[in-house]
Amino acid sequence: MSLVSPSRDVAVLKDGSPRRLEAMLSAIVSSMGGAAALAVYPVLAAELRQIGMGSSLSHCLDIGRAFRRNMHRKTTELTELIGGQLVAEGVVEEVRNGDLSSLTVVNDLRRSAARIDFMDEFLAVTVDGTSVASTPKIIIVVDRTTNRPLRCDEVTRGLSVVVSTLPTIHEWPEGALSLVGPEAFGMDMGED
């Protein structure tokens, strides 16, 4: 598989176990500034039309363009303008690292606390003990001062943040949730 960064750096991984490849991909993408295009295997455009999600790249580009056009706005307004949903806001009080890491965001005005679980990406948000968002939804944490989206490793104690979900492109089939939902990451969200 090949990765290309926005500045045209290229990395090629020839083989390895899924676990090792994931660790290498994470390190490479992080060193590329958090973004990279990935080519896993050659495929014809006609095949992609049959098996791919139509307009998924356009959807992502539209969100990115709306975000950049409105970065001067308050973070909560920006979330709404890109079609996202605000799930928590406040100051990061604690960051716990481990196999499944978490951070705690406290909002003194609303007297609420949110726990955001993460590994290499934000996986779930629980506010005052109630699950409000989880993978496969895309969860983002944005620095309220700069409106800059943060990677998991950039969130530190004392930051003022807004936690949101991005608009979805499609609904996942029920059978896929075991592969992309919280349980795929060893999380029990307490849902029946």
From TrEMBL:
It holds the Pfam family S-Me-THD_C. Signal peptide: none annotated. Residues 19-189 form the S-Me-THD-like C-terminal domain. The keyword Transcription regulation does not apply. Keywords: Membrane, Transmembrane, Transmembrane helix. SUPFAM superfamilies: CV3147-like. The chain crosses the membrane at residues 23-44. It comes from the Bacteria. This is DUF917 family protein. It comes from Brevibacterium marinum.
